[in-house]
Design brief:
The chain has 6 helices and 10 strands. The chain is an alpha+beta fold. The strands form 2 sheets. It has a 6-stranded mixed β-sheet. It has a 4-stranded antiparallel β-sheet with strand order 2-3-4-5. It is elongated.
């Protein structure tokens, strides 16, 4: 009897605590880092909150939006207190969240990234089906074949050999998806045919731990 095996690879920027964005004062893309200070604005029973960042090159300030027009009643009193007190732990938790386009983040400029690997469910049979779930929360503009090659420690040519052998395919997508930027969530189905191309393919896929790539 076989059981499905699900493996997740999360694609993260090499340093999620810094945000690469254009600095108005430097007039170029620079790194911004959290000051661990919040800015709040109350409007009736609604609350706006920002985390204040500073450009590492010139010190120019930028407010990263955390939420806008949030009903005060929807926030735990402990969270409101932490915001008002510039709680460092809460600030670091917000700063660790992947940046988005609304933050002025430029995906194309982020070549450095890492793959966080996790087994979502275990299997009792080496012949069971395997699905690789790739999530890209920051929408980093990195080709799927590049992520697979670096995550498996093989060449891109080898990845395309797996594709041609029918060993891997993207659910609900064509082969072109392998040459395009990875989506926010991509599910790849892996068959046993991959063992003929890479004998230890399954072992490479389920290998746990962070893998710095880029």
């Amino acid at each position: 009897m076989s059981f499905p095996l699900y493996v997740q690879w999360k694609i993260l920027g090499a340093n999620t605590l810094q945000i690469e964005r254009r600095c108005a004062r430097c007039d170029s893309v620079t790194s911004f880092v959290s000051t661990e200070k919040f800015r709040l604005n109350a409007n009736g029973n609604r609350l706006d909150a920002w985390l204040i960042y500073a450009c590492l090159a010139c010190g120019n300030r930028w407010n990263r939006t955390l939420f806008e027009r949030r009903p005060v009643r929807s926030l735990p009193s402990a969270t409101i207190d932490a915001l008002q007190e510039n709680n460092a732990r809460l600030a670091r938790a917000f700063a660790a969240q992947p940046p988005t386009r609304s933050d002025g983040f430029r995906p194309g400029s982020a070549d450095a990234y890492k793959i966080e690997k996790k087994i979502l469910s275990k299997t009792k049979s080496v012949e069971s089906t395997l699905e690789l779930v790739l999530v890209n929360p920051a929408n980093l503009q990195i080709r799927l074949d590049r992520v697979l090659a670096e995550g498996l420690s093989v060449s891109r040519a080898m990845v395309h050999n797996l594709l041609e052998a029918g060993a891997i395919h993207v659910r609900s997508a064509s082969k072109r998806a392998f040459r395009q930027p990875i989506r926010e969530k991509t599910v790849i189905e892996v068959s046993d045919a991959g063992q003929k191309v890479i004998p230890d393919l399954r072992a490479r896929l389920v290998q746990q731990g962070d893998a710095g790539c880029g």
